[in-house]
Structures are given as C-alpha cells and as structure tokens.
Design a protein that fits this description.
Elements (H helix, E strand, L loop, with lengths): L11 H6 L2 H25 L4 H27 L11 H6 L9 H29 L3 H28 L2 H19 L11
Helix pairs in contact: 2-3, 5-6, 5-7, 6-7
Length: about 190
C-alpha cells in the first residue's frame, strides 16, 4: 500500500527495544519537524487555500502527537533529550535538484513529505507488531493509521499541483532512491535511521 521499495529490516525493532528512551526522543522531534513542515508550506504557498487549510490541521495534529510522545517520555521518568540530525531526511532531500519554479519546488516538498510519512507509517506498523512493550505497541498502532492518511494527503496535493504523469514518475524515482538509502539505514535507535 505504501509503495516502499525496500522494507525495514525487522531486526531494527531489536535496536529500538534496547534504546526506548532514544527512540522516543527522536520520535518526538520527528513530530515537531512534521508540524514545522506543515507551517512552512503555509508560509511558502499561502495562495493555495486548500493546502493551507489541510496544513493548519496537520500542524495541530503533529504537535498533538509530539505532546503524546513527550507524555510517554515523562511517564517513564525521563526528559526529552536533545534533537539529533536525521540522516535519512538529510540524504533524502538531496534527490531533487535545487531551483526550478515555485510549483516544482512545491511538488518536490510534497513528495518528500509523502515519503517521510510513508516510511514513518511503515516503521510504526513494525513497532506495533514486533515491540515487546504492550503499551508502546498499542501507541504505535494508533499512530500508524494517522501517518497513512498523511502520506496519501501529501501525494494527493503533489498530483493536484503538478502534472500527474510527471509527478507519478518523480514519485517512482524518489521511491527507488529511498530504497538505496534504506540499505544503509535501520541500524540506529532513530525513527528513520
């Protein structure tokens, strides 16, 4: 359903289970960055009224998720750690060339966002099915549904604002590129790395 070309190695869950505090901190910042992305799309493309409306809701939802993850951290007697660099996102953002029209830039941002949400959804599914912590398994199962909706929303907007055939080709090319990135990731206690 997600179109990902390379699934996460299930052994990644073993790394997560040994580093729950680290994964929760990384996850909290992922939610905060997702809210920031929504806000940046509003700021960058205010004339796209439908996009602005959806991104307003998304920013609220993502900050709600941030709060939920933060509550999990506090409940376990921890504090939110420092933000880490997201190697996955840094490498992913190198795919599309810089420059181009505003519309092209928008489509690229939307495709990046769709893919990040798709990979998050896949990771949440894996955690919901494989993690031995029943509370976290349920938590990630609930978040997985939300992430799937985000992925399809971003893809829908990319197709709306760009040429459908070109957008679909770019999406497939981005998925192929992401699969090559994933060959070297999944070995750290981070949501995408």
């Amino acid at each position: 359903m997600l179109g990902l070309k390379l699934p996460t190695d299930p052994r990644w869950v073993n790394i997560v289970e040994k580093n729950i505090e680290e994964i929760l901190t990384d996850h909290a910042y992922c939610e905060q960055k997702a809210a920031s992305t929504a806000i940046s799309l509003i700021i960058g493309f205010p004339e796209k009224s439908e996009l602005v409306k959806e991104m307003t809701s998304l920013a609220r939802e993502e900050m709600g998720h941030f709060n939920m993850v933060h509550d999990k951290i506090l409940k376990r007697g921890w504090v939110l750690g420092r933000e880490r660099k997201d190697e996955y996102v840094i490498e992913l953002m190198k795919f599309f060339p810089k420059g181009g029209s505003r519309e092209t830039h928008l489509v690229h941002k939307l495709l990046y966002a769709a893919l990040i949400e798709a990979r998050s959804c896949e990771r949440f599914r894996l955690l919901s099915e494989e993690v031995n912590d029943a509370e976290l398994a349920e938590f990630y199962k609930n978040l997985m549904v939300s992430e799937a909706n985000h992925y399809t929303m971003f893809l829908k907007f990319a197709r709306m604002y760009g040429n459908r055939e070109e957008v679909d080709q770019k999406w497939q090319d981005l998925l192929e590129y992401e699969a090559t990135l994933m060959q070297n990731l999944g070995k750290k206690e981070t949501m995408h790395g």
